[in-house]
Specification:
four-stranded antiparallel sheet, seven-stranded mixed sheet, globular
């Protein structure tokens, strides 16, 4: 059983930065950040593989967001820079054991409760 707890959300102005954290217990193959805006489907933002620490990003956040883990792989981070109002959403941490790590909700078995990010113009 993997437990996930996000923190670090908040309200910022356009162009600002936030760093999200996700405390994780248990071993997984992939970890990721997803987000869901009101009235929209949950979408993948970034993932990292636990072996090799390979990363992948949604096109909309490339060059602005960075996913990382601490050395013990107990905390997942998402550094978000140059935030835009379109980034406003509930952000979720996810973990799983898929055969291939993908930015797809089906690939993840475990989810945190989310942390709200609001970006004002």
């Amino acid at each position: 059983q993997v437990q996930l707890q996000e923190s670090g959300g908040g309200s910022v102005q356009s162009g600002g930065s936030l760093k999200l954290s996700c405390a994780a217990s248990g071993d997984t193959r992939c970890m990721a950040w997803f987000r869901q805006a009101p009235g929209k489907e949950r979408e993948g933002v970034a993932l990292i593989t636990n072996i090799g620490r390979t990363t992948a990003y949604a096109e909309s956040v490339k060059g602005r967001f960075t996913i990382s883990q601490d050395g013990a792989k107990t905390t997942l981070y998402l550094q978000m820079n140059s935030l835009e109002p379109e980034d406003t959403a509930m952000y979720y941490c996810a973990a799983g054991y898929p055969a291939v790590c993908l930015l797809s909700t089906e690939a993840y078995n475990y989810w945190g409760r989310g942390t709200q990010v609001t970006v004002s113009s």
